[in-house]
């Protein structure tokens, strides 16, 4: 089987890596960060893993649930009753024993068990095509050394805009390039806190009093719902929509923390700074796609695939809720296309040999 270069070790890159390495492809994954998981990355806290950005499963996450079944970790999902303040409803939310790291770590293990490689601190700077149709993915390592991956197929899982920036050397039509470049994304700043206590038992708070002017758009009291873990405290997330042109985007983590916490205290005056045990800011430039193309752009050139959240829906008006599930469906679809193509080419080659004989 051929070689596949996958750019990004988030959920979609690892899923593709798992599927294609299992199907016998030689898989190389390149990830610019020092750790896996992308938006679903975790850190260690107390005796547990916890995501840097809040995540939960929904009952309707069918494609993702199927993956957990295949990997034998469906029994590790626990369902909790969660109160959603602002939508005045109770919903079931799912969460893994061991957090989402359970899924990410098992995908990595399956890839490496099947001979795949994951290179961290490796940023893709350019993808070019050779005359024989194979691709060269040029990477820069964190110490500025250069590295190239030659492959028959390339799957890019970052934002569509980043894809356009690294694919200037490819003969992709101007129309496709423009459409990909025009897909805009919202950024997010998330303050995750380990607290001594939480002042609310709502899992998610989406509405705030008029004129409260909070820099965050939602509060997630993770442990108000997922309350059987050993984090060494209560987990609170404050998640804000922030444009990169906003002055807050370039502020220091301490300044952002001060601003977020000041606004939080206005909502809950009984909470004090001394209730904070530790905290961490995570900024994401391409967090949520806000536009979707009219047509399918996931294969802008033969054997080049873009598995990005902005391409999971066509002509949709707003960001769908089941984002992990949609990217899982797109990743599955891309892998099926690659496997089918290889099979067809293999059969064609055999036909040619038989005819020649
Ligand atoms: C705050 C927040 C909360 C969310 N909560 C939920 C939830 O509860 N339920 C849900 O269904 N979805 C949720 N989502 C969406 C979910 O996180 C995403 O759908 C999913 O993680 C996307 O995975 P991905 O692999 O496609 O992308 P990513 O996780 O973005 O992975 C892409 C990877 O590519 C790497 N990369 C990019 N460019 C390059 C390059 N040039 N070279 C090398 N590597 C590169 C990046 O570093 C990254 O690791 C949430 C998203 C956010 C922002």
Short description:
This protein is α/β, with parallel strands linked by helices and 357 residues long. Helix content is 29%, strand content 29%.
How would you describe the overall organization of this protein?
The chain has 357 residues and is an alpha/beta fold. The protein folds into two domains: 3-53 and 97-184 and 290-349, FAD/NAD(P)-binding domain (3-Layer(bba) Sandwich); 185-287, Protoporphyrinogen oxidase, mitochondrial, domain 2 (Polyamine Oxidase, Chain A, domain 2), CATH 3.90.660. The chain is 29% helix and 29% strand. The strands form four sheets. The chain has a seven-stranded mixed β-sheet with strand order 6-5-13-14-15-12-16. A hairpin with a 5-residue loop joins strand 8 and strand 9 (135-141). The longest helix is centred in the last third of the chain and has 34 residues, at 323-356. The radius of gyration is 22 Å and the shape is globular. The two termini are 24 Å apart. The structure holds flavin-adenine dinucleotide. Flavin-adenine dinucleotide binds at residues 7-13, 30-33, 38-40, 53-56, 123-124, 157-158, 162, 166, 188, 190, 239, 284, 287-288, 309, 322-325, 327.
Number of strands: 17
Q: What does the overall shape look like?
A: globular
Supply the helix-strand structural class: alpha/beta
Bound molecules: flavin-adenine dinucleotide
Strands of the widest sheet, in order across it, are 6-5-13-14-15-12-16
Level-2 CATH architecture of the largest domain: 3-Layer(bba) Sandwich
CATH topology of the largest domain: FAD/NAD(P)-binding domain
State the helical fraction. 25-40%
The name of the CATH superfamily of the largest domain reads: FAD/NAD(P)-binding domain
Unreliable parts: none
DSSP helix count? 8
CATH class of the largest domain: Alpha Beta
What would you call the quaternary organization? single chain
Q: For the residues shown, what is the average pLDDT?
A: 93
Please state the CA-atom Rg, rounded to the nearest Å.
22 Å
Approximately how much beta-strand content do the residues carry? 25-35%
The separation of the N and C termini measures 24 Å
Order of helices and strands: EHEEEHEEHEEEEEHHEEEHEHEEH
């Amino acid at each position: 089987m051929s070689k596949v270069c996958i750019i990004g070790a988030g959920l979609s890159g690892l899923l593709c890596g798992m599927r294609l390495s299992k199907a016998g492809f030689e898989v190389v994954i390149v990830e610019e960060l020092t750790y896996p998981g992308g938006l679903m990355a975790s850190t260690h806290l107390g005796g547990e893993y916890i995501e840097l950005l809040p995540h939960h499963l929904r009952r309707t996450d069918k494609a993702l649930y199927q993956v957990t079944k295949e990997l034998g970790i469906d029994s590790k999902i626990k369902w909790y009753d969660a109160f959603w303040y602002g939508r005045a409803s109770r919903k079931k939310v799912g969460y893994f024993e061991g957090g989402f790291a359970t899924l990410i770590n098992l995908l990595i293990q399956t890839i490496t068990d099947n001979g795949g490689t994951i290179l961290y601190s490796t940023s893709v700077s350019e993808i070019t095509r050779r005359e024989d149709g194979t691709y060269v993915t040029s990477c820069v390592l964190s110490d500025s050394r250069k590295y190239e991956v030659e492959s028959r197929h390339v799957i890019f899982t970052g934002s569509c805009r980043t894809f356009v920036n690294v694919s200037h050397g490819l003969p992709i039509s101007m129309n496709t390039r423009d459409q990909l470049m025009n897909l805009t994304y919202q950024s997010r700043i998330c303050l995750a806190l380990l607290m001594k206590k939480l002042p609310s038992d709502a899992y998610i708070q989406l509405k705030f009093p008029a004129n409260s002017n909070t820099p965050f758009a939602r509060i997630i009291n993770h442990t108000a719902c997922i309350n059987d873990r050993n984090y060494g405290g209560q987990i609170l997330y404050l998640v804000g929509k922030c444009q990169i042109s906003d002055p807050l985007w370039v502020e220091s983590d301490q300044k952002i923390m001060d601003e977020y916490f000041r606004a939080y205290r206005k909502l809950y005056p009984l909470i004090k700074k001394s209730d904070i045990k530790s905290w961490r800011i995570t900024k994401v430039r391409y967090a949520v796609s806000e536009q979707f193309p009219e047509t399918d752009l996931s294969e802008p050139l033969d054997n080049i695939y873009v598995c990005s959240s902005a391409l999971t829906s066509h002509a949709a008006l707003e960001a769908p809720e089941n984002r992990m599930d949609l990217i899982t469906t797109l990743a599955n679809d891309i892998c099926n296309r690659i496997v089918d193509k290889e099979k067809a080419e293999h059969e064609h080659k055999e036909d040619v040999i038989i005819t020649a004989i």
